[in-house]
Amino acid sequence: MAILYDSVARTFTLHTAESTYQMKADAQNVLLHTYFGPRADGTDFSYLIVSRDYGYCSEPAENTAGREYSLDYFPQEYPVYGDGDYRVSALQAGIAGQAPALALRYVSHRILPGKYDLPGLPALFSIEEGDAETLEIVLKDLYEEIYVTLLYGVFEEKNIITRAAVIGNRGAKTVKLSRVMSMGLDFPEGGRELISFYGKHTLERQFERKTLCHGITEISSARGTSSHHHNPFVIVCDRNTAEDVGACCAVSLVYSGSFKLQAEVDQFDSLRIVCGLNDNEFEWMLGSGESFAAPEVVLSYTEKGLSGLSNGLQKTYRENLIRSPWKNRKRPLLANNWEATYFKFTGGKLLELARQAADLGLELFVLDDGWFGKRDDDRSGLGDWYVNEKKLGCTLGELADRIHALGLKFGLWIEPEMVSEDSDLYRAHPDWAFVIPGRDPNRSRSQLLLDFSRQEVREYIKGRIDDLFASADIEYIKWDMNRSIGNVYSAADPGLSQGAVRHKYILGLYEVLEHMLAQHPDLLLEGCSGGGGRFDAGMLYYAPQIWCSDNTDAIERLRIHYGTSFGYPMSATAAHVSICPNHQNGRMTPFRTRGVCAMQGAFGYELDLDRMTQEEKDEARRQIRLYNENWELFQQGNYYRLASPYENPDFTAWSYVSPDQSRASLSVVYTDVHASAKPYRLKWKGLLEDALYELDGKLYSGTALMHGGTVLPWPECDYDSYMTVIERKN
Ligand code: DGJ
Predict the structure, then answer these.
(1) Distance, CA 368 to ligand 1 centroid (Å)?
(2) Residue ranges making up the domain that contains 474
(3) Are 454 and 476 found together in one domain?
(4) Which of 247, 289, 43 is nearest to 145 (CA)?
(5) Which of 218, 198, 210, 215 is nearest to 274 (CA)?
(6) Does the C-beta of 532 come closer than 6 Å to ligand 1?
(7) How far is the CA of 528 from the centre of ligand 1 (A)?
(8) How many Cα atoms occupy the beta-carbon half-sphere of 229 within 13 Å?
(9) pLDDT tens digit sequence for 527-567
């Protein structure tokens, strides 16, 4: 049993392979958070909570415990606004028209087999009987019929605890929710650090580590998407935590819209983390009998350092979050025409590219933006999902058939959440776009957002997608989204609380994705938002891979991939070889290095294949062969960050090790070159100590490679690279 309830101490103890998590319903029925740390026994950890009469710490509403009891410094499981706790809260709500205030007290609980789900929202799931248990704890406001059900999913073996919260209005009066977080997590000791991943378009998920000081640190997005700018994934760790040692806790929100994560260090140096929906512009009216589910948060605690943490998360997301049948299949090596042609193509040019792709040994041809409506640049056409037969010289079905005849699968780009003002769809339904009445909207890439909170808009888009699938044999979709959400106003119901629209939009997006996948269960869906603007655990539930960044420069990708690897499977990280000078930053890198870098993730090519030199084609064939021989290692292996692009100015290195440790790869990209350079040594990780591995024709023991290391070849030019695969021989 991973979940234990002690009816005398009234403690709930959740055990995973490496951690223990504990709560306690105290004498006042307040649900305290008593422990989250290395695996321990069932001790009631509330002895660590010291009650004192601290100044300016108010007592809870019912005050049965006297002045030595205040929620202002007690560690709590789901802290609310308005009960004497002045720190950041997980929930701010109250009867509509009255001041928000809650006093939540424990009512009941249930322990259930399997993993709960959250209808309409992405969430982790069980893959076999007995791999997960659920704890449901019901709290109720002291005064009103407002209930909160806290949900916990414990994947013991995977070292994962999930959390979610469902707010229920069982009274007659409407309840106004103005802030709903999925969780609160109190750490009694401060002195922690926060690792988060900031960025911008073409430079997503940049690693940043900082000491948490007194006050509130916030990582959030108000862009309606999880965003390029901040990612809904952080790590809280000790000062001494490194790749292979130290305590660390992952907090990963399974949601693709505006989010907020706050870390507050309080007057007693305790740390509180809250994480959930961004409360900027959020307001949800909960009618009598209704409930509201906050998205899921995934937690994992380990003392094995960052490498142990991210490998555990990567595996869990590969197995228990990604639903696609493609999760364990070899991902097709693709050619995408975007950087090859942008909007300037004909059907003939596409077929020429596809022919070259087939000749190189690629498996999927993706037709990117520009095939529909009036779309020869990014100023028009979005919303008109009708093929431009004049441009293609044939129907979409015919093009797909010709591509299939070359032995390739056919994939298509779409951006269904958007509309151009210069489109038939906008002309017919201007009120389907987000525009605040009486104000001009902010345009971004000359496009507006379709109001996905509206049923009729979603039905229209579902219909258009169904028609596309009916018109051509499409095996892959790249679902793009090229602007931040703004000017949010739903014209559907002017009385509707506009503060609900952003979240309803995301629920609407999930509904449309669900529809498409239900109709086409074998579809390979790739997420995209101007590259990695919506690279989050929510999207992975639908899309087993996500275009990681619009930046295809191999060297900048080193940092992007490095950051992404902490929270997400590398198999989900789509990466392509592109042309040089690179289109985003003008850098020249060897073709070989571009392949080494792109092979870190879902691999493909995005350049004019017609214009490749013979030497490049030979190198591409070598890369494709290497990937085909090792795809299981790359898709399912443990991933080790061996040299950080932030700490090592000379090279970045990483390695994959197969789950049975019989095979491993080593990839190195040199980021600087020196005359009279010193020899570089690098230690492998994750191998079997006693096994003998063959490297460059010689046998080495696992201990030799891990403790002594490998001497790397000298780089021969700027941005040179090295990649090798070793195999166990005994
Ligand atoms: C942004 C994507 O990230 C690119 O790969 C490409 O699909 C363009 N959109 C097309 O407009």
Answers:
(1) 7
(2) 325-635
(3) yes
(4) 289
(5) 218
(6) no
(7) 8
(8) 14
(9) 999 999 999 999 999 999 999 999 999 999 999 999 999 99
**Do both 531 and 665 map to the same domain?**
no
Residues β-bridged to residue 17: none
Residue 190, token pair as written in the block:
């401060």
Which of 581, 604, 635 delimits the end of a domain? 635
CATH number of the domain that residue 24 is part of:
2.70.98.60
Q: Does some domain include residue 353?
A: yes
Residues 501 and 485 in one domain: yes
- How many domains are there within the chain? 3
User: In the predicted model, is pLDDT for residue 190 greater than 90?
Assistant: no
Q: Is residue 495 predicted with pLDDT exceeding 80?
A: no
Q: Which backbone phi and psi does 6 adopt, to 5 degrees? A: -100, 110
Q: For 38, list phi and psi in degrees, rounded to 5.
A: -55, 150
The reply to whether 558 falls in a domain is yes
Percentage of the chain exceeding pLDDT 90: 96
Q: pLDDT tens across 5-44, in order?
A: 999 999 999 999 999 999 999 999 999 999 999 999 999 9
Helix 591-598 × helix 614-636 angle, to 10°: 20
DSSP secondary structure string, 139-207? EEESSSSEEEEEEEEEETTTTEEEEEEEEEE-SSS-EEEEEEEEEEEEES----EEEEEEEETTEEEEE
pLDDT for the residue numbered 288? 98
Tokens 């906008």 — which residue?
Answer: 426
**What does the alpha-carbon distance between residue 207 and residue 196 come to, in Å, rounded to a whole number?**
6
Q: Quickly count: other Cβ atoms within 10 Å of residue 315's Cβ.
A: 18
117, 265: one domain: yes
What is the spatial distance between Cα 187 and Cα 77, in angstroms, rounded to a whole number? Answer: 11
CA atoms within 13 Å, Cβ hemisphere of 55: 0
Q: Are 49 and 268 in contact (CB under 8 A)?
A: no
Burial of 520 (0-12, 13-18, 19+ CB in 10 A): middle
| Residue at a domain's end among 614, 635, 656 | 635
Determine the distance separating the centroid of ligand 1 and the alpha carbon of 135, expressed in angstroms: 42
Whose alpha carbon is nearest atom 11 of ligand 1?
369
Q: Which residue has the tokens 């001790």?
A: 43
399-to-220, 334, 460, 515, 609 alpha-carbon distances in Å: 43, 17, 25, 25, 18
Q: Are 575 and 662 found together in one domain?
A: no
Considering the domain architecture, whether residues 647 and 690 belong to the same structural domain is answered as yes
Counting from 1 in the atom list of ligand 1, the atom nearest the Cα of 606 is: 5
Give yes or no: residues 647 and 631 share one domain: no
Pocket probe mutation, ligand 1, options 228, 339, 368, max atoms within 8 Å of Cβ:
368
Say if 300 falls within a structural domain: yes
- Count of helices and strands (H, E) across the chain: 13, 37
* Residue 536 appears among annotated catalytic residues: yes
Indicate if 556 belongs to the active site: no
CATH number where 670 lies: 2.60.40.1180
Confidence (pTM): 0.98
CA 385 vs CA 95, 309, 371, 431: distances in Å:
45, 43, 9, 18
Select from 168, 163, 154, 164 the least CA-distant residue to 93.
168
Task: Check whether residue 615 and residue 652 sit in a common domain.
Answer: no
Q: Whose CA is nearest to atom 1 of ligand 1?
A: 530
Say if 54 falls within a structural domain: yes
User: Token pair of 541, please?
Assistant: 């539930």
* Cα 584 to middle of ligand 1, angstroms: 13
Contact 665, 723 (CB under 8 A): yes
Convert the pLDDT of each residue in 640-690 to its tens digit: 999 999 999 999 999 999 999 999 999 999 999 999 999 999 999 999 999
Question: In the 8-state DSSP scheme, what is residue 477?
Answer: E
